[in-house]
Amino acid sequence: MPTLVTTPNSIALLDDDRASARATAASLDRLGFKTHVVDSVASLRALLSHTRVPLVLAETNIPGLSQSQFLRTLKADHPDVLCLVLTSYGSIEGAVEATRLGAVDYVTRPVSDDELRVVIEKALRQQALVAENRSLRGQLDTRFGFESVLGKSDAMSRVFELAQAVAETKSNVLIVGESGVGKSLLARAIHQRSARRDRPFVELSCGALPETLLESELFGHVKGAFTGAVNDKPGRFVAADTGTLFLDEINSAPLSMQAKLLRVLQERVLEPVGSDKTRTVDVRCLLATNVDLEPLVEEQKFRQDLYYRVNVLSIRIPPLRERPGDIPMLVDRFVRRAKEQTGKEIIGISDAAMSLLVRYPWPGNVRELENAVERAAIVARRPTLGEEDLPDAVRAATARVPAVMTITPISEESPALPLAVALEGPERRIILAALDRNAWSRQKASAELGIDRTTLYKKMVKYGLLGREVA
Predict the structure, then answer these.
(1) What is 171-211 written as a DSSP string?
(2) What is the CATH number for 456?
(3) Are 80 and 131 in contact (CB under 8 A)?
(4) 51 CB contacts (<8 Å, ≥6 apart)?
(5) pTM strictly above 0.70
(6) pLDDT given for residue 155 in this prediction
(7) Beta bridge pairs of residue 59
(8) Buried b / exposed e along 20-36 (16+ C-beta atoms within 10 A)
(9) Sign of the C-alpha dihedral computed for residues 234, 215, 312 and 202 taken in this order
(10) Mean pLDDT by 10 residues, the chain (471 residues)
(11) Which residues pair with 106 in a beta bridge?
(12) Which candidate in 145, 202, 222, 411 could, as Cys together with 274 as Cys, close a disulfide (CB 3.0–4.6 Å)?
């Protein structure tokens, strides 16, 4: 593809009438523009093939030239080039057709220099806005593209494949994963790949607000609905209308709120707090939970009908400890980000420090890893981040984990067992050792093992380890 030459303040003028072309070119020259005059569509195509111009002024009353076909072709071949239609025989019908087909304005001759300057400046502002929007969209795609969000391991590749498939639908999506794995990033990436990408993306953590405020925050309220409601408030559903609403920690939503949420998801209608007027909203909901919802349904802490509504499409993000191969890639990205934020000359991380990061179980997942790298970058005194720059928790925990684990070989005479049964013995010994190291504190042992306390408790019941713990 040939390289386009850019001439400052350049404009293309298409006009087969030499007299009117000279007059218009003279006006443009007085206004400070460099004008490329062409007398045919073929000449215009040749010009645009090697010269970058932001705007074409086109006289469409040329014999053999259809205004509609010309505008369609220009928009298809050169989407970044705007067109301003000039004509000596203007009509309302022609103006309507021109703007419908993408012309930025429609000017009837004769036109003064001031009038011409106003319409050109308006068109160039629009062209700059289009370029800025395209740039911002590209930055969002880079930041929230599936490939750059959370990793490139096989496990994450499967997550991205499923996310790509659901992004193109209108259905609600449930994202499941421990705290810190990147559920909000994946939600944003799904929104960026959907047909709603140019519409609002609104976030709310249901666990961050008390029940008294959550309803107002979600559905809005009217003035006087409660003490302190001095003005109407639209709420997050209305703010996300025609776009996407991401509700994090949906497992924390109280039962009273779940019933109202179910109605909005099913019927797309809501009433603000203190109002009896129903409002319709067009919102796609992405929901996230850091615990499995099925046990909450069994314990009647989460509505079964809401669970079935939000669990139509479900994506589980595996914790970082299950995909250590993603850690070097994530560390590299976080190092580059920390370099930009701190302004320090950081060239990378040492092999020894990377080894510690890969061996650490990361109970806080990707968020904890990012914080650890940021902390290392702040305290580092050398361009290469070293072991001494890592948080104490990382160095202390990995010191207890050997780089190479010794595995007792299984002889051919060993009885055949299902894999789940065969792994029970090693798992029990690992849990028992962690409990011993932490004086049987479930909170400390679960943090070391990289699992939550509920999971540890269930495994202790399974392996008969209850009765000796102190917490």
Answers:
(1) S-EEEE--TTS-HHHHHHHHHHTSTTTTS-EEEEEGGGS-H
(2) 1.10.10
(3) yes
(4) 4, 5, 6, 7, 10, 12, 36
(5) no
(6) 83
(7) 86
(8) bbeebbebbeebebebb
(9) positive
(10) 58 87 88 88 88 84 74 83 78 69 78 85 75 54 53 82 89 93 90 89 89 86 82 89 94 91 92 89 95 92 93 91 87 89 88 89 92 93 92 80 45 54 74 83 85 83 64 42
(11) 85
(12) 222
Q: Are residues 26 and 130 in the same domain?
A: yes
Token pair 């779940």 is at which residue?
258
In whole angstroms, give the CA distance from residue 320 to residue 151.
10
On whether the CB atoms of residues 347 and 339 are closer than 8 A, the answer is no
Q: Domain for residue 469, yes or no? A: no
Tokens of 79: 């989407």
We report the CATH number of the domain holding residue 205 as 3.40.50.300
CA angle, corner 210, sides to 208 and 212, nearest 5? 140
Give CA–CA dist 342/375, Å, rounded.
11
CB burial string 193-227: b at 16+ within 10 A, e below: bbebbebbbbbbebeebeeeebbbbbbbbbeebee
Query: Cβ contacts of residue 245 below 8 Å, gap of 6+?
Result: 202, 203, 204, 236, 237, 283, 284, 285, 286
Q: What is the pLDDT of residue 470?
A: 45
Percentage helix, strand, coil, to 5, in the chain?
Answer: 50, 15, 35
Per-residue confidence (pLDDT) for residue 458, from 0 to 100: 80
Domain of 253 in residue numbering reads as: 145-318
Same domain? 34 vs 101: yes
Amino acid at the residue 346: I
| Residue 249, both tokens | 């920690």
Closest CA to 187 of 226, 243, 131: 243
User: Which letter, b or e, does each residue of 391-405 get, where b requires 16 or more Cβ atoms within 10 Å of its Cβ?
Assistant: beebeebbeeeeeee
List the structure tokens of 21: 């072309």
Q: How many domains does the chain have?
A: 4
**H or E stretch at 83:** strand 82-87
